[in-house]
Amino acid sequence: METTESLGYLKGLLDGLDLDPNKKETKLFNAIIDVLSNLAEDVDDITEGMELLAEEIDAVDEDLAEVEDYLMEDDCDCDCDCDCDDCCDCEDCEDFEVECPLCGEAFAVDEDTVLSGTIPCPNCGELLEFEIEECEEDED
After folding, report:
1. How confident is the model at residue 64 (pLDDT cuts 50, 70, 90)?
2. Which element (helix H / strand E) includes 134?
3. How far apart are CA 39 and CA 46, in angstroms?
């Protein structure tokens, strides 16, 4: 039974007792019923406010998801034509793990950076150089 239904039931019980309206006890019961009525209205108002707030939060969450999707699409700066969600996971956009020999900082670099030959360590600034070894294919 909901609060408003319970409150109506209590009012019915009080009316059914056929109490003398001039007695102190009757006045007390009526005052209690009035307070309960006010509390029930306040609870209804709070519930309605929470429902509206929940709807607004859902709308903001959806908008934020759209913004995140838009920003994540722009993060991919590779030249591949893949349709993967995170372009750095595709085979064409492979990252390489590099460790700075000076400070020991490990970080990832893309293929273009490796092919350029050098990169400064993001931690200590040491210039790291990459040597490219070309594979010679066996000819028959």
Report:
1. very high
2. none
3. 10
List, in order, residues 6 or more apart from 132 with CB less than 8 Å away. 114, 115, 117
CA 44 to chain centre: 28
- Smallest CA-to-CA distance from 97 within 134, 135, 130 is with 130
Q: Residue 117 has which token pair?
A: 């030959």
Which DSSP letter does residue 81 get? -
Is the model's pLDDT at 27 over the cut of 70? yes
SS3 label, residue 30: helix
Alpha-carbon distance of 37 to 41, in angstroms, equals 6
Res 2: pLDDT = 86
Q: Is 9 exposed, middle or buried (0-12, 13-18, 19+ CB in 10 A)?
A: exposed
Distance from chain centroid for Cα 16: 54
pLDDT digits (tens, 9 = 90+) for 71-89: 887 555 555 555 545 554 5
Within 8-135, strands assigned E span: 95-99, 106-110, 118-120, 127-129
